[in-house]
Amino acid sequence: MARKTIYCAQAFWRRGGRLVGGEVRQFLNEERAMVGGEILLTGADGVAVFSLEGHPDEDRWDEPKMIALLGDAPSADCLAA
Fold first, then answer.
1. How many other CB atoms are there within 10 angstroms of residue 31's CB atom?
2. CB of 73 closer than 8 Å to CB of 48
3. Residue ranges of E strands in 1-81
């Protein structure tokens, strides 16, 4: 099965002292994920931009690789959990 890389951005909001994540958005490449992350940041407290590599046919993915943290967003360790 072929491996694939997907690029993602996820917005986060601070609620009651905790970060609450929104929907993960997928993008065609890293550049578009960064632009999408900057747009998401206009309505959120923070955004994590990251990539995932894996086998989509089997829904098996490696740990996320952090590209950028914008604003108040969790670390890569939290995204993997």
1. 10
2. yes
3. 4-15, 18-27, 46-55, 60-61, 65-71
What is the C-alpha separation between 48 and 38, in angstroms, rounded? 10
Instruction: Quote the tokens at residue 51.
Output: 């990539």
pLDDT tens-digit profile of 38-81? 999 999 999 999 999 999 889 999 999 999 999 998 876 666 44
Give the containing element (helix H, strand E) for 10.
strand 4-15
- For the chain, what's the residue count? 81
Using DSSP, state whether 7 is helix, strand or coil.
strand
Give, in order, the Cα–Cα distances in Å from 43 to each of 28, 29, 59, 78: 22, 22, 30, 21
pTM recorded for the entire structure: 0.87
Question: Could you give the CA distance from residue 48 to residue 61 in angstroms, rounded to a whole number?
Answer: 18
Rounded Cα–Cα distance for residues 46 and 64 (Å): 17
